[in-house]
Request: fold
Amino acid sequence: MLDALDWQLRAELDERAQRGLQRATLLDGQIVGADFGSNDYLGLSRDASIADAMVAAVREYGVGGRSARLLKGGSPLHEQCEQAAAAWLSSEAALLFPSGYQANVGLVGALVGRGDAVISDRDNHASLVDAARLSRARILVHDHLDLGDLERALLAASSARRRLVLTEGVYSMAGDAAPLLAIDALCRRYDAWLVIDEAHSVGLLGPRGAGAWARAVDEAGGADGHRLCARVVTGGKALGVAGAFVVGSSTLREQLIHKARSFLFTTASPPALAGGLTAAIERCQRADSERVAVLANAGRLAAALGLPVPAAAIVPVPVGDAGVAVQLASDLQDEGFYAPAVRPPTVAEGTSRLRVVCHADQSTDVVDRLAALIVSKLRTRPVVASVVPRRAPVTCVVGTDTSVGKTVVSALLLRAAMARGPVRYWKPVQTGFDDDTQCVSELAAAESCHLLPNAVSFALPASPHAAAAAEGAAVSLADLQATLEQHRAAHSDSQLLVEFAGGLLVPFALDPPATQADWLVSMGAQVVLVARSGLGTLNHTLLTIEAMRARQLQPDALFLVGEPHPSNREALGALTSIASIHEVPHWPSLSTDSLDAWLQGNDVTELLSV
Reply:
């Protein structure tokens, strides 16, 4: 059986290799030449005083953490390095985690959960993305450093118990800096709290290298009433060691000790790490000349390549195609320069690049030679950035059950969307003699250009798997996905409105098991959930949302169909943190005029720009 699994895994690896996405671990010394790839910006990983501190820690306290911090793990050096980090960053307290990934996951999970909202920049590091997903809070993603889109997300999260905004001081792949004080101002306006990952800014920016937030506050002359609740400071980049601190108030530290699972349930970092970090913090504060050298080298390289001035040490060289980026990095390696290619999933499809990182010990001659080589390679091997084909955005209308009103809601959304621009309605799987596409067409007064044909239709009014089996057929999730992609490509200028059949967990097939929820996970679509408004809606709706969140899905809107039920609506608003909740009555005479009258009094425009 293991051979079968290995065969499947090998097929996946081969497919990645064909796309230029193959990866391998690299050892120090394995790559010969000038290092423009690692994050050891200041060269502290080989600093003698830090090495001596680590050796001394091993001799006094041993080599291992022995157990979790709450079970006598660690050493006095752990609290010493935490106090040093807090003092350096002018904060009350800090808590040491074994890695930056664990720090982010532990921090976000300790601050938010069900009923809360996380607002995250689209380019945030994977550790922040995973932290948001694992927290089970509602997740709203805004366009990269787009303050208007951030404000839209904050408005959409207005009903959440707590709102947490996640950003980076300097972004690890784009090398640009966040407008921290402007983000903080929005947090104040919308009662949100700010978390900054300072992995690539601490050590390089601000007084004594205290980071992007410290620089912003210093330049502004203070930030009274700020909403900053935590900074994450990694020890394995500018500090040259490993581990990561969460820095904030004493109360935050206490909360993390109680609720940060990645702290509670892991062995303490070795004493040598804590001893080395204490020495590294002291050394880093005195590294002003090294900071100047790093920023000067990065600015010099960017200018030579005609690129924007970088915020810190990272100079991204856009390439586009993953294979071309890999070949360019290989060409540079042959010439004695390590400047690695960054490809999906680290960055989005079509945005592969070289991630060039400058260091304090690089001479201007080395920087100039790398710049000239990159220019030469791009001239002799023209880099044509791959263009990611535009695909139609998708809005899926799903239900808590059958006959809850999905078709009426689909007609409402189609009617509203038709007034704004191109849109297509699609019912992939039709079961029963009623034709939902025809019903939507009549209610929305849609023309044939607004309608797409069913992928499959079955006469039996039953679950797709049962209706298909009654006709000796089967529903293929792969075929449905392929058809969806064809529609998204063919109608890339439109919004695609997809109505599911029955309830969210209705199966397409039993062997292997495949439900509508499984398909929804792979879509990356906006989700509109439809439920009954009256008796039973609380249980059915909350169970459906729980099933969605277990799959990292979140409804963007909830439509309650039937006689209005104020207490149910209030309860669902409080328990789900869904900001956009609409009530749709049962009309005595259902018609296009009914839909138009409802749309005049209900704004659904936020669902028509996905």
User: Anything to note?
Assistant: The longest helix spans residues 288-305. Residues 394-607 form a domain with the Rossmann fold fold (CATH 3.40.50.300). Residues 280 and 408 are 63 Å apart (CA to CA). The chain has three domains: 46-285, 288-380, 394-607.
